[in-house]
Amino acid sequence: MQKRIQIEANSSEEALNLAVEKFHVSSEHIFVNEISENSYEALLDISLALEGKKYLESILQNFGVDYNIEVRTLNQEKEIHYAIDSSENPLLIGVKGRTVDALQTLLKNLLGAYTNEKLMVTLDIGNYKENRKRQLEILATKIGKEVASTKQPAKLKPMSAYERLIIHEKLADWRDVYTESEGEGEERAVVVKPRLDK
């Protein structure tokens, strides 16, 4: 469901202009209905997936790179997945994936402003996140086995919240180890610990 707001105005034209200001989109995406005298309902009707794609295209065009964007939506557009392949993937991914993470945050904030629904937005560039996920799952398995056999905790390098989540999820069902995140900010890291009661 897209955003709806109620507006007090003297005419439907005034209500539409106020809705344009509130939604920050052009009037062709807004429908205005009169509820009662001087009271209107404005409904934003917009394809979130398409708006996100346009936003990414504007950024990529400013970078001046060749690109291809794939968009996948699930769960009635409550999950939107973008995959970019470009002539400058390393530039768009950034050091330790910081640029792709920043772009994903911008995209999520932009699309989140258009809906009241909980939205899941992911962005991958050149399969970086898919490959990184595989690497982290292999690392989690290796460290999990070591901790299970030595009964000594192991602290991994600091990681982003997304990367820590991959480690936590990979080891969540293990009977002989468990995971915790420790530290603050950029120093936050996963610690894999043995279950000593096993």
Characterization of this structure:
By secondary structure, the chain is an alpha+beta fold. The protein has three domains: 4-44; 48-126, GMP Synthetase, Chain A, domain 3; 130-194, 2-Layer Sandwich (Ribosomal Protein S8, Chain: A, domain 1). 41% of the residues lie in helices and 27% in strands. The chain is built from six helices and nine strands.
Number of strands: 9
Task: Give the number of domains.
Answer: 3
What is the fold named in CATH at topology level of the largest domain? Answer: GMP Synthetase, Chain A, domain 3
Strand content: 25-35%
Model regions low in confidence, pLDDT < 50 over at least 5 residues: none
The average pLDDT score comes to: 91
| Proportion of residues in helical segments | 40-55%
- Give the SSE order as H and E letters: EHEEHEEHHEHEHEE
